[in-house]
């Protein structure tokens, strides 16, 4: 344990470095993803849905390099994108398919996809690759593009992708913000999955991205190696732990990830305030000359998700058993450029959004869960003795499998009473980790066992804290 603590202090003061890429697999206990060396893989994703579609190579280099430095490990991007992905050309004037036919990929378009995937791999990043946004498969929520897939062409398209990218560091994600709501759609996704696996030969993991407040665990498909849920954007303090608890009880057991929680800077319940039938979508007077939302606009009456929401949902997910978390920013997912069109109005353009506070918080997440890898602990709410609610007062906790440490997240810096009997030994060393700046306090020694109340250094909105309790002699580490 002493070596872990030395690593702790080293990581607190140093930047996250680029890692080496390997193919991934499911751990033996089916609780997390691991690399070829059997080490837990920390999924810290970013939703860059329009990456292939809207950025040129210089822009893509800038984006990927920035995200790698910030501690991200996975980039989620779509080949046939949501925003008129079939009809609107990419940065080089290329559309992905000839005659809207999945059997006729435009290789010029895919050369750009090749470049981005290879660049990501050089930076130690994985691309979670969506073959298509799900509006192009039969569903009950039409998008801009037509439905173009059937079982036959889905299989052929899957084979094309599997052969082209099967040896790259890819994680396959079928779907795209749609549930599988009819047998025809199910047949298409099954055919696409089979086509990919035929050429990929099972090298890379696969999952499915559902609609908001749903999980892929509903489908129980053999080709789904790990489950994805989208906790969504309905309100602040989404009970993401409920999704985790539900997926943890599924059989057969599979790891699970919140691959689309609330995005930083996206309006809360944005769909209530957008006229999807209108060309403008929102009143033009709330936008400035760059098509950005004016600072004083109150059109979105429930406000916007913030970096605080990012941290809350991330820690609630991880300490509830999730093996990954995906960040998102409203401007980045759609790669919004000043003066351009938007799907949902933005506060900044995509480049400025790369430096939003929630994105920098990912680096701090990376640090703490590199120190305490996912395979070392599991969710355990029995540590918490005081009453906690199901909104902003919820307290999430996890206990080491060997009982040597506990992690407790306090969204509002609220006092917490902990059952110290749960940890082995009669000496407990207490650390406070500030998830906003990635700083660790000096340790405090507690020599009693049983119930003990901990008071964080500060409390209230934007005063969240991670309480770390350990049983090793950390006080002696220089």
Automatic annotation (TrEMBL):
It comes from the Bacteria. InterPro entries: Apiosidase-like_cat_dom (IPR025277), Collagen-bd_put (IPR024749), GH (IPR017853). Gene3D superfamilies: Glycosidases. Residues 380-469 form the Putative collagen-binding domain. Residues 27-373 form the Apiosidase-like catalytic domain. This is DUF4038 domain-containing protein.
């Amino acid at each position: 344990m002493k070596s872990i603590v030395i690593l702790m202090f080293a990581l607190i003061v140093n930047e996250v470095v680029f890692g080496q890429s390997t193919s991934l697999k499911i751990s033996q206990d089916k609780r997390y993803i691991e690399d070829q060396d059997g080490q837990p893989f920390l999924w810290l994703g970013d939703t860059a849905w329009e990456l292939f579609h809207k950025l040129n190579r210089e822009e893509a280099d800038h984006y990927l390099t920035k995200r790698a430095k910030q501690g991200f490990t996975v980039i989620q991007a779509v080949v046939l994108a949501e925003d008129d992905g079939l009809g609107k050309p990419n940065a080089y004037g290329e559309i992905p398919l000839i005659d809207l036919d999945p059997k006729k990929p435009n290789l010029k378009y895919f050369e750009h996809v090749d470049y981005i995937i290879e660049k990501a791999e050089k930076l130690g990043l994985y691309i979670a690759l969506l073959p298509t946004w799900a509006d192009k498969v039969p569903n009950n929520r039409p998008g801009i593009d037509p439905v173009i897939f059937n079982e036959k062409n889905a299989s052929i398209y899957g084979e094309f992708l599997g052969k082209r990218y099967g040896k790259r560091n890819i994680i396959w994600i079928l779907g795209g913000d749609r549930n599988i709501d009819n047998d025809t759609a199910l047949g298409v996704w099954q055919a696409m999955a089979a086509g990919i696996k035929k050429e990929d030969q099972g090298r890379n993991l696969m999952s499915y991205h559902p609609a908001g407040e749903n999980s892929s665990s509903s489908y129980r498909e053999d080709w789904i190696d790990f489950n994805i849920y989208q906790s969504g954007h309905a309100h602040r303090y989404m009970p993401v732990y409920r999704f985790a608890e539900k997926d943890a009880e599924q059989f057969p057991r599979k790891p699970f990830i919140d691959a689309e929680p609330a995005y930083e800077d996206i309006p809360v319940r944005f769909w209530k305030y957008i006229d999807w039938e209108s060309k403008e979508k929102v009143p033009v007077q709330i936008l400035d000359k760059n098509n950005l939302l004016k600072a004083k606009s109150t059109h979105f009456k429930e406000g916007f998700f913030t970096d605080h929401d990012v941290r809350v949902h991330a820690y609630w997910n991880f300490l509830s058993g999730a093996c990954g978390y995906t960040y998102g920013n409203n401007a980045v997912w759609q790669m919004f450029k000043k003066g351009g069109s938007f799907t949902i109005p933005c506060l900044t353009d995509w480049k400025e959004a790369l430096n939003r506070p929630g994105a920098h918080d990912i680096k701090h997440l990376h640090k703490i869960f590199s120190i305490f890898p996912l395979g070392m602990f599991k969710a355990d709410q029995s540590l918490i003795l005081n009453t906690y609610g199901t909104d902003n007062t919820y307290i999430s906790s996890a206990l080491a499998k060997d009982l040597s440490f506990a992690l407790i997240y306090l969204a509002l810096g609220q006092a917490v009473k902990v059952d110290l009997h749960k940890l082995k030994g009669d000496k407990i060393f207490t650390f406070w980790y500030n998830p906003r700046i990635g700083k660790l306090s000096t340790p405090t020694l507690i020599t009693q066992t049983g119930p003990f109340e901990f008071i964080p250094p500060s409390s209230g909105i934007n005063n969240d804290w991670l309480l770390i309790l350990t049983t090793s002699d950390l006080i002696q580490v220089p």
